[in-house]
Design a protein that fits this description.
This protein is an alpha/beta fold. The chain has 13 helices and 13 strands. Helix 1 links the parallel strand 3 and strand 4.
Length: about 375
């Protein structure tokens, strides 16, 4: 364990954020993922779970990887002394992360004003879908609705078909969790420079909209059509897309630049019959030629053809297949901990490498250690 500036121990792991203390008010989706990322990078993340609250996922909490590298205490925020226990943790923390609807934390007595009264340097991270203000701020929602109104969902899929749903990666995690972490780290820099904390309002709609910045620029310049499957990067281009192989697998093609395209058509064996790539009127014909050729071999055979070349072609792997890809295996992109194969911490650091050091925190399992390390004896049950 590391020793913090106040002389207390903590459970910081290896990584550049060792020594940072984070209080996470239990939630689901992007909040826990953001806190996991901070924990992966070495922060001592204490998750405040509700007694009998259970996990937000429809799986055993022992498999909820988003709670790895954390510790958990049980606090009933609706009890008479619940808010005071959380504020005792806040007084010793650098960051708090919560994902309630706007106003809920305030009603529970752990809103920004309550927390900053105890710890003016605290970075208070708020994770919501719609944000803290606006006509929909109090409305329920999920990833699919947030990415729908930003225009991101409408970009994905084939023309003439319903938009394709990208799991909850684009909204919850890319537009939500990652922007919360960026905001928290930026606010930490400000707090350490000025001694003053602040509130980070991370809304999934804001982050997801921000992700489309390049597309908006291309659209303004006339280089992007506002419809699915008609553009360079959305499947409209025959040399940027996916193709089925003879065994029902798929290959992903991204041969955008001319030199990569030249290698692609040569290795695919269509160099002499492929229509000119710059002739947009013949893109449909080019796509048919490429598709027909890919259907002549298996995914494994085509992988062998393109492996290690600059054709920008790769096999489309399943979640279970991905950890065994030679490149990912060589880099240890995935790791196994507690019998669960899972993505390793990212990104990587030359001086302070991160690691998975603990499995999913079970609710309340670390009350005693946190009470001791953070010097908050009020966390302990009355009879201890």
């Amino acid at each position: 364990m590391a020793v913090t500036g106040n002389g207390n121990r903590d459970a910081s792991g290896p990584g550049p954020l060792a020594g940072l203390r984070v209080v996470e008010l239990a939630g689901i989706g992007p909040g826990p993922f953001a806190a996991m990322l901070l924990a992966d990078l070495g922060a001592d993340v204490v998750r405040v779970d509700r007694p009998g609250g259970g996990g937000g996922l429809a799986v055993n909490p022992a498999y909820d990887v988003t709670n790895r590298n954390k510790r958990s205490v049980l606090v009933d925020l609706k009890s008479a002394d619940g808010p005071a226990r959380v504020l005792d943790l806040v007084e010793r923390a650098d960051v708090l992360v919560e994902g309630f609807r706007p106003g809920v934390a305030e009603r529970l007595g752990v809103g920004p004003a309550d927390c900053h009264a105890r710890n003016p340097k605290l970075v208070y991270g708020r994770m919501t879908g719609w944000g803290q203000e606006g006509p929909l701020a109090q409305s329920a929602g999920h990833d699919i609705a947030y990415i729908a109104v930003t225009g991101a969902l409408g970009m994905i899929g084939n023309p003439g078909e319903p938009p394709a749903i990208p799991a909850n990666l684009v909204g919850d995690y890319a537009g939500g969790s990652l922007y919360l972490v960026i905001g928290v780290l930026a606010a930490l820099q400000h707090a350490r420079t000025t001694g003053t904390g602040q509130v980070v309002d991370a809304a999934i709609v804001d982050g997801t909209a921000h992700l489309t910045a390049m597309i908006h620029g291309m659209m303004a310049a006339g280089g992007w059509q506002d419809r699915r499957g008609a553009n360079l990067l959305d499947g409209g281009c025959p040399f940027y897309g996916t193709y089925e192989t003879s065994d029902g697998g798929y290959m992903a093609v991204g041969a955008l630049e001319q030199q990569f395209y030249d290698t692609f058509v040569e290795l695919l064996g269509i160099k002499d019959e492929a229509p000119a790539r710059k002739d947009l009127a013949r893109w449909g014909e080019l796509r048919e030629v490429v598709a027909a050729r890919f259907r002549t071999r298996t995914r494994e055979e085509w992988t062998a053809v393109f492996e290690g070349t600059d054709a920008c072609v790769a096999p489309v792997l399943s979640l279970r297949e991905a950890p065994h890809h030679p490149h990912l295996a060589a880099r240890a992109t995935f790791t196994e901990f507690g019998g669960i194969t899972q993505p390793a911490p990212a990104p990587r650091f030359s001086a302070t490498p991160a690691a998975v050091t603990g499995g999913p925190a079970q609710p309340g399992a670390h009350t005693e250690s946190v009470a001791a390390d953070w010097d908050v004896p009020a966390l302990l049950p009355k009879d201890v």
